[in-house]
């Protein structure tokens, strides 16, 4: 049986994703400490703040020459709320990532669905590997919003009907679409985040362009903004070296 209040059964439609930095232990000094420990031993922590230009240069050198492991000694945990189709792409990133996602078996899934906002380009032109996306017409935008919302309502009604009849959540959820919002904690380090950003964002400084789906890019952009505040020298070196993870 469902125990959801009637108001919560009305679907909500969102055009954006949520990214919150919930926990972190991440600073440029972690990179410097790790890089210098091999030569300076236990005294290396004292050296960090003595020469900022040297520190900046060292981070840039590590990035440029792809000495990657000093960028692993830090941790960032993000809360992310996004459509299931974003999580399917996200969880392909296996190395340097830990995930925990909400369960559709142990709790009733909430009726929150993704509908593209007016800025989301709707039409794909070109051939594989050479796609560009262009704005849709007003008629296409109206069609997308209307058909998605109708379809989501129908699917969620079917889900509720099964729950009300006593069908288990893990069975009933099969009718819900990938536009349903889910949430997860994702923990990474700067190196694994850079690899993710190199593949899942587009940027004028990228020397190896990628062509991510806009919605996972929206998540990536918000994660990058948080990371840049924590590790500004590392972030600047990432950009200066073509946004290729070391
Ligand atoms: C634009 C775009 C389109 C995509 N389209 C598709 C698609 O159509 N279908 C699809 O299935 N996937 C698709 N993917 C997912 C893609 O193939 C990767 O699974 C995803 O980007 C994660 O990258 P990764 O394996 O490098 O990352 P991680 O899993 O985090 O791995 C990081 C690095 O570790 C090394 N590594 C990890 N595992 C292994 C291993 N088993 N063997 C050797 N080295 C390993 C590699 O160097 C790898 O780059 C797409 C990705 C992008 C960005």
From TrEMBL:
Enzyme class, spelled out: transferase
Positions that bind dUMP: 89-92, 101-105, 173, 200
Biological or metabolic pathway of the protein: Pyrimidine metabolism; dTTP biosynthesis
Any Pfam family: Thy1
Catalysed conversion reaction: dUMP + (6R)-5,10-methylene-5,6,7,8-tetrahydrofolate + NADPH + H(+) = dTMP + (6S)-5,6,7,8-tetrahydrofolate + NADP(+)
GO biological processes: dTMP biosynthetic process; dTTP biosynthetic process; methylation
GO MF assignments: flavin adenine dinucleotide binding; NADPH binding; thymidylate synthase (FAD) activity; thymidylate synthase activity
Cofactor(s), names only, from the UniProt record: FAD
Comment on bound cofactor: Binds 4 FAD per tetramer. Each FAD binding site is formed by three monomers.
EC code: 2.1.1.148
Record-linked PROSITE patterns: THYX
Positions bound to FAD: 69, 92-94, 101, 189-191, 195
Active site: 200
UniProt-listed InterPro entries: Thymidylate_synthase_ThyX (IPR003669), Thymidylate_synthase_ThyX_sf (IPR036098)
Keywords: FAD, Flavoprotein, Methyltransferase, NADP, Nucleotide biosynthesis, Transferase
Top-level taxon in the UniProt lineage: Bacteria
Subunit structure: Homotetramer.
HAMAP family per UniProt: ThyX (MF_01408)
Family membership noted in the UniProt record: Belongs to the thymidylate synthase ThyX family.
Function in brief: Catalyzes the reductive methylation of 2'-deoxyuridine-5'-monophosphate (dUMP) to 2'-deoxythymidine-5'-monophosphate (dTMP) while utilizing 5,10-methylenetetrahydrofolate (mTHF) as the methyl donor, and NADPH and FADH(2) as the reductant.
Name recorded for this polypeptide: Flavin-dependent thymidylate synthase
Species name: Streptomyces lincolnensis
């Amino acid at each position: 049986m469902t125990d959801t209040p009637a108001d919560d059964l009305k679907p909500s439609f969102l055009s954006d994703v949520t990214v919150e930095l919930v926990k972190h232990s991440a600073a440029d000094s972690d990179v410097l400490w790790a890089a210098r420990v091999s030569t300076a031993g236990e005294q290396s922590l004292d050296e960090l703040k003595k020469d900022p230009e040297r520190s900046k240069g060292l981070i840039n050198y590590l990035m440029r020459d792809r000495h990657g492991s000093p960028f692993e000694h830090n941790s960032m945990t993000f809360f992310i709320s996004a459509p299931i189709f974003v999580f399917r792409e996200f969880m392909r990133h296996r190395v340097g990532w830990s995930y925990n996602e909400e369960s559709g078996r142990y709790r009733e899934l909430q009726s929150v669905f993704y509908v593209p906002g007016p800025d989301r380009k709707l039409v794909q032109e070109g051939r594989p590997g050479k796609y560009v996306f262009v704005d849709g017409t007003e008629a296409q935008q109206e069609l997308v919003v209307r058909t998605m919302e109708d379809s989501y309502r129908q699917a969620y009604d079917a889900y509720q009907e099964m729950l009300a009849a006593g069908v288990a959540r893990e069975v009933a959820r099969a009718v819900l679409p990938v536009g349903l919002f889910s949430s997860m904690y994702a923990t990474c380090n700067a190196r694994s985040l850079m690899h993710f950003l190199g593949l899942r964002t587009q940027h004028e400084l990228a020397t190896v362009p990628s062509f991510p789906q806009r919605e996972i890019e929206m998540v990536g952009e918000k994660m990058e903004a948080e990371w840049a505040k924590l590790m500004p020298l590392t972030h600047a070196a990432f950009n200066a070296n073509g946004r290729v993870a070391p």
